[in-house]
Amino acid sequence: MRFNKLIPELYVSDFEKSLKFYVGLGFKIEYQREPLKFAFLSYQESQLMIQEIEPEWLTGKLEYPYGRGINLQINTNNIYSIEKSLKKNHYPINNIIEENSYQKEDKLLICKELRVMDPDGYLLRFSQDIKEESLN
């Protein structure tokens, strides 16, 4: 397995609940460290780690939602499968699937996006590329 250069590690309040959430969305457990309540997860080409809170690593008080000020964009090739899984498992979706566009140099990148908060309040933004248009 190739490791990404940046891999977020999220502290979670209930490891089993969070693991069930991510696996339910299609994340694969690459490996776990059972006594530490830690898992390394992947979804297509995205990677992240979850671990139940370890007080010695905290930099401040954690309060729900843990993910204030950050959203994690996770690229997907099938945003509708994410939506289906969220609905099936009764997780609240922050928005319906919407089409957004972002300028990158002389191109317009068009994608479909869906936002959801994980059980601890980390905001996940699933994004599926649709097309690219030239601005010239």
Q: Please tally the β strands and state the result.
A: 8
What's the CATH first level? Alpha Beta
Number of domains: 1
- Overall pLDDT score: 92
CATH superfamily: 2,3-Dihydroxybiphenyl 1,2-Dioxygenase, domain 1
Helix content: 10-25%
Rg (CA only): 16 Å
Protein architecture, described:
- By secondary structure, the chain is mostly beta strands.
- It has a single domain, classed as 2,3-Dihydroxybiphenyl 1,2-Dioxygenase, domain 1 (Roll), CATH 3.10.180.
- The protein has 2 helices and 8 strands.
- It has a 4-stranded mixed sheet with strand order 1-4-3-2, covered by helices on one side. The chain has a 4-stranded mixed sheet with strand order 5-8-7-6.
- It starts with 8 loop residues before the first strand and ends with a strand.
- The radius of gyration is 16 Å and the shape is globular.
